[in-house]
């Protein structure tokens, strides 16, 4: 069984908003209407979306990890 994890696109489709709006809600940008934020958060819960840390580190070029030697 090769089930893919939900993506921002899946959450956006479920909430009826754009992928950019989902990203803004996840990243805490404040210029998103409170009602839309609630829709997106509910869609995140329904889809089981969880941010992919590996993908985030590729985009930002920061792993935010500490190595001990």
TrEMBL record:
It comes from the Bacteria. Residues 6-60 form the HTH lacI-type domain. InterPro entries: Cro/C1-type_HTH, HTH_LacI, Lambda_DNA-bd_dom_sf. The keyword Electron transport does not apply. Residues 7-34 form the HTH cro/C1-type domain. SMART domains: HTH_LACI. Pfam families: LacI (PF00356). The keyword Transcription regulation applies. One of its GO terms (molecular function) is transcription cis-regulatory region binding. Keywords: DNA-binding, Transcription, Transcription regulation. This is LacI family DNA-binding transcriptional regulator.
